[in-house]
TrEMBL record:
Name of the protein: FAD-binding domain-containing protein
Family: Belongs to the paxM FAD-dependent monooxygenase family.
GO molecular function annotations of the record: FAD binding; monooxygenase activity
Record carries keyword Membrane: yes
Coiled coil: none
Segments crossing the lipid bilayer: 404-423
Keyword Transmembrane helix included in the entry's annotation: yes
Domain (FAD-binding): residue spans on this chain: 6-349
Sorted UniProt keywords: FAD, Flavoprotein, Membrane, Monooxygenase, Oxidoreductase, Transmembrane, Transmembrane helix
Amino acid sequence: MAPPKIIIIGSGLSGLSLSLFLTRLLPTASIKIYEVRPSTHPSTSGTINLTPNALRVLDHLGIYKSLIPEGFNFDNLTLLNHQFDFLASIPIAGVSEFEYQSLRIERRIVHSALLRKVLEHQSPIEIIYDSKCERVEESDTTVTVTFTNGVSDTADILIACDGIHSTVRKSFVKDPKDFDPRYTGQMSIGGVITKSQIQEYNVNNNPYPLMMFGPESSTGGNFMIWPYDRSGDQFTFFTTLPKPDEEKDWKKYTEDKTVLKKIMQETFCSDGSPWNEMVRKTVELSETEGYRFWPFYLHSIPEKFYSEKARVIMIGDAAHAMPPSGGQGAAMAFEDSETLAYSLAVAFNNAGLSNGSNLNINTPQGQNILSKWSDHRIQRMKAVQEMNKRMSDMRKGSSGSTSGVMFTVKVWAIWLLGLLGVLGRTRRVINNYDAKKEAAAWLGEEAIARYSLE
Ligand SMILES: Cc1cc2nc3c(=O)[nH]c(=O)nc-3n(C[C@H](O)[C@H](O)[C@H](O)COP(=O)(O)OP(=O)(O)OC[C@H]3O[C@@H](n4cnc5c(N)ncnc54)[C@H](O)[C@@H]3O)c2cc1C
């Protein structure tokens, strides 16, 4: 009997982490990852924040410790108002309570660490670059993917890790148009600066990262300043701004970075701007070339994360992209990978894979496991999205209102929430997630105890 074949579309954070879990939990499987990017540019740039739930997954893969010295590790977020008055210090993470600190790090470093593990692992994981998935078709017994270069491949199962604009998602939802990504009308704009350039304006020496809230959307509702490297000297700064669809002149933003800097200057540094000197100086002193923008998209979440015949499964942004305001997209992708890998290992081994048979997930028992996994992940997503929404509302400047009274109410609410530790408690729900323990709920303690990632 041929070894079981698994195809993964996309070698982003979800595709690589999933392949590593699968190769340990289903060691006989052959795993091929197809990626549209060239091997010379395997990752996107920018920085991300990884909370304890994300880091726990990376720890299970043996990657976390190598990342600690590569980024900025912290426990609390300092909340200030636009005048630089202290509002609250919010516990985001911490070894004593959550086992891990939070880590701000360049995305490409996390990606390379995963990639190195894939390459060093003497496992049958193969990455095929320059391959753009065009369509996917499943039968009762196999799934076939066709690429734009005319090549096709067939496997027992295929997992969509191809991000928010997923082609695979379109191939198996009933009405693909309903699941097209929609621009939310908000975008993040930001750049980079060094601590030495702006530290003198941090008058009370507030601990970083700083999250500041302003009175009105039109004059900037929020401004973040976040270290992201091991020395704590390299900072990223950004704001989330409403930018209606009609203003979709984004080609200009890419071609000429002065346009982005100008938007930031008009928003934060104009005459009469209510913003503090640290924010103004950060914008003024920053290099124009360092500016970037990220429009926020959303798509409808399908009822389940697998196809009718259970041969196509989706995870990460392909299944449930969310705006980055809550900093949980990658964390969700990692949680998906680990929980799915355990679910597939148990489903396949129960179905007799250990006796050498092909992967067959299209059985009542296989479907039952996938359905429980999918329901669990959708529930988790909803809880995290709720928190995300609260974070974006806070960043909107007076929760979207321009009234001074509303702004005062918001500032008090933030202060009170910080005092009562409510924001911290929300974090506990997010941070304490442990994929293996969670998966035991639908796979059974005994079944899951057989598996080790060593
Ligand atoms: C500005 C911004 C800030 C963020 N900040 C955070 C943060 O602080 N914390 C956090 O946890 N998350 C954050 N996120 C979210 C996080 O980046 C994503 O959730 C995460 O990268 C999703 O990983 P993925 O592998 O599912 O998708 P992706 O990273 O999008 O990877 C998809 C891969 O599939 C490939 N691909 C696409 N289409 C095809 C095709 N047709 N054929 C073959 N290959 C294809 C792509 O090239 C890519 O390599 C942020 C996102 C943004 C935009």
